[in-house]
Amino acid sequence: MRKSIATVSLSGSLSQKLVAVAAAGFDGVEIFENDLLASPLAPEEVRARAADLGLAVEMFQPFRDFETDDADQLAANLRRAERKFAVMTRLGTDLLLVCSSVDPAAPADDARTAEQLRLLAERAAAHGIRIAYEALAWGRQVNTYDHAWRIVEKADHPALGTCLDSFHILSRGGDPAGIGQIPGEKIFFLQLADAPRTAMDVLQWSRHYRCFPGQGGFDVAGVVAAAVRAGYTGPLSLEVFNDVFRQADAARTAVDALRSLLVLEESAGLTSPPEPVVPTGFAFVELAAADPEPLRGLLTALGFVRTGRHRGGKPVELWEQGEARLLLNASALGVSSAPGEGPALVALGLESPSPEAAMRRAESLIAPVLPRRRRPEDVQLDAVAAPDGTELFFCATARPGLPDWRRDFTMAESWTKPGPAPLVTGIDHVALTQPWHRFDEASLFYPAVLGLRPGESLDLADPYGLFRSRAVADADGGLRIALNVAPGPGHEDGRPQHVALAVNDLGSVLRRLRASGVAMLPVPANYYEDLEARFVLPEAESAGLRELGVLYDRDEPGEFLHCYTATYGRLFFELVERRGGYRGYGAANAPVRLAAQHAGQLNGWSRTVID
Amino acid sequence: MRKSIATVSLSGSLSQKLVAVAAAGFDGVEIFENDLLASPLAPEEVRARAADLGLAVEMFQPFRDFETDDADQLAANLRRAERKFAVMTRLGTDLLLVCSSVDPAAPADDARTAEQLRLLAERAAAHGIRIAYEALAWGRQVNTYDHAWRIVEKADHPALGTCLDSFHILSRGGDPAGIGQIPGEKIFFLQLADAPRTAMDVLQWSRHYRCFPGQGGFDVAGVVAAAVRAGYTGPLSLEVFNDVFRQADAARTAVDALRSLLVLEESAGLTSPPEPVVPTGFAFVELAAADPEPLRGLLTALGFVRTGRHRGGKPVELWEQGEARLLLNASALGVSSAPGEGPALVALGLESPSPEAAMRRAESLIAPVLPRRRRPEDVQLDAVAAPDGTELFFCATARPGLPDWRRDFTMAESWTKPGPAPLVTGIDHVALTQPWHRFDEASLFYPAVLGLRPGESLDLADPYGLFRSRAVADADGGLRIALNVAPGPGHEDGRPQHVALAVNDLGSVLRRLRASGVAMLPVPANYYEDLEARFVLPEAESAGLRELGVLYDRDEPGEFLHCYTATYGRLFFELVERRGGYRGYGAANAPVRLAAQHAGQLNGWSRTVID
Fold first, then answer.
1. Secondary structure (3-state) at A315
2. Could you give the ipTM of this predicted complex?
């Protein structure tokens, strides 16, 4: 179906918005009146600009508070409409959105509203213009789509139809099934927006918290499917008012927006893009550090062994232990050595049953494909950029019939092979702090592109603010990524990242680290007193946690023991022992961890640099 | 009454919070459990730290989900409570806040809840500890203060009382009158918070949007007055969860918090601080500019005349026209000449019927008093700093019996006196963009310290985000200040300011400016087409507006014509013609103005600097 977006969904001037919308690949736009009013471009110039960019002007919107019991006001409103018809003719669009009135003088009598809309449609038709009447969720008399449709039906004019809006329908708990009662040709337009499920005044919810389909909690696909079944053939058009998108880069937001429509078409059963190929685990995690020595020291203490270096001469080392594989990249491309920068996680190797099919899925959802300079003998590794810039490689480790990405690495003679009984058994999860204006994009990107399942969204308390956290994972827990975000701008410096390593016996790993002189993030004694108040733990176990500084959590199926290393630049490591089927990430302990990190008592990287 | 604050209301570590609370002048604190858990200080150390700072530990909080229909859980909860009693003894506090349970297993039977609380109180009493039972607004069974009190009454134990919380009472529309039914000695504690009036899920509202009394829409004073009438003698204690305060400087927030309690005591009729002395207008507006020449050019074109220079040799000039007086300060203290900085509004002279009494009021509300270096012969001018750093001088212009601040200025021989028929008649208003974390503070500061009336809070659309705007003004409109703010951090550079000059005939002023070659902010033609659609204006008037680039608004009593100069650093000027009793500020036109400013077509200051 044709894809469109309302200009109000993006930031910037009208010209900038049109360029961003066209560049992303949309077919058309709804011109939001305020964008036109603030533009130095005449309507004819906007029309020409859109045409040059290959964009149809699908609709002009909104025309507010038309219907009224006040006869003088009705005359004034018709006069106002005539002026807008003139603007629309110059703008090159034939469709005007009329929202149900919020005026106290809006007629309570449907027959009267229908009569007035019929009058408006007659006037519009004289200009070749059509009217799409929409029920605002907070309309004075008309606030449900079926009520708006009854009025349109009663008015019975060929230039009058209805506009459906998924937000207005679903925010009031409306059932989209009734859309089937509307003849398809009378659905003049379909506006789409999602929103997080929250109990909030519907006007505030609509003005500030809408998001693109798939980023919130509404069944937007159900609305689309119902409209298409009814015979709707117009565009799918996004209309999203959101405090974050208003501030973010328009070009980027437009791509995110188009991706949401592609996923929506698939969810509504209208298209069949390549299916997602869910990664089964981390093939590798790549860390970049201008000075890799402090990380080498830590990895060695943790029992990692350096097993290879890049054949092509790139300054990249492979470190392994159990199923955990880390690349240590000393070329540190794009990683400054300024304090707060330093070591960083730059790429994830995703273990894929079919890297090629995974890449086709990613491309079909316009994930940014990364160029890869390689020598002819290198293993072909395709990659896309995640919303926060992390590179995601689709690859295979020791899978029959697929090239092993480790062929690019060769073992140095002096280096050792990994031992048979690793302390670290694999990578439990990776946590990436997202830029504040990429969180919604990320929470659609990972499920849509990689087929990962989103978890619950949590608020975590930090001494200097709240963080939102949401995990995405495959069904078996082989690949888990925690996405964190601060609620607004101002926390962009050195967004923290961490790699959680899975161990079988956290106690022995910690005793080994202690013997190596590696300090771990301290846990306050008060934490253990509260822990013992909340849980009945065997005396020895409790004393062991306290002595080794281990954090503890429990859920229905199991237990979680974890602790943290010092911070290296933006990066730190967590050590994780999952017992039974514990499902979470120890979120209850995050405030204690964050407070200790803020206290800044332990910074492995800067200490090394300063010494 | 004693004044206290919950540590959760402030940012930082527990030690930092205690220091900030003591420095602001509070008498005590509620220790929020999570702050203790994350602290490396043992409870005894916290107790000693608080004692050294002169702070009482008024309460430990919260103890959650105590009452339950599950017998095993009840035993576990009593065990948990015993552990907390031990912590409290070490902490040196005898009061524990118990919130009504949100657990689905919370007893529906009041008798059972009372029996369990009585059991808890007996256990507590054995440690010399008392229990304050509070109804959370979202409690499962108990969610109103009168319900909590009925249970406390039924439990009938001397170590059990109730805790009242203004947020929990008022967010559910509770009537504080019922507080009179509770014996004062059974009100063990009184927690205070305000919140903006909004329809929102009460838990989200409470967690993110509470604010200090006087900054929201609740009648917090009514709750305080009712509790005091009932015989409550404990502390007034603030408990405010707020996403902004969590990120802002704790020392600053603590002062803002204490001010809110001082104002609250006055509103509740408990104290009589010096009354506010409402300023009647602007004595002057002081502009600082490292290079004042571009501003001199603009002021001259606007018809201002340079009437004096500072007697003490400071590089400050007085410019006058009608009742508008501007100081042009070339010493530019604290004003950098970097792009985006440059000229700025640094001080306001407030025309005060009694500068001395105004100062007493300000001091009583701990407004930061500014040191003033002056020579013995200078007029005494006292000043305080507004929340955004603007200096506010209390002064008198040509008032019998009071020294005129203009005595500090002397007229240069070559300069002229102002003409008899000024184009500019006075200062209509001043608009100051607040730092994002000072807006709540400012919206309490101006009404409390200066006695100005707050207006409605508006959301204005800018091409890159929404702005909140709220005006404060005296009853006669002689002094109006518009406070604007972006919704979060990230907009701190060059916060825009503007001075709106009142004129009698905007048309002649604009024609004069045009003749002088001064360009005004362009208004798009599309704006006028919409204006003519919205309003029926006489043809000549409409053409005049369009020709001169004037913005127009109308309300019940009158009309508003206005336009804007180029931007000089952070600063621009508005020219304003009010007709009839128009009450607003042309907010409907703000998006058009903001879009034109973003387009950056006109920057008087940098153009001059670059040329």
1. coil
2. 0.88
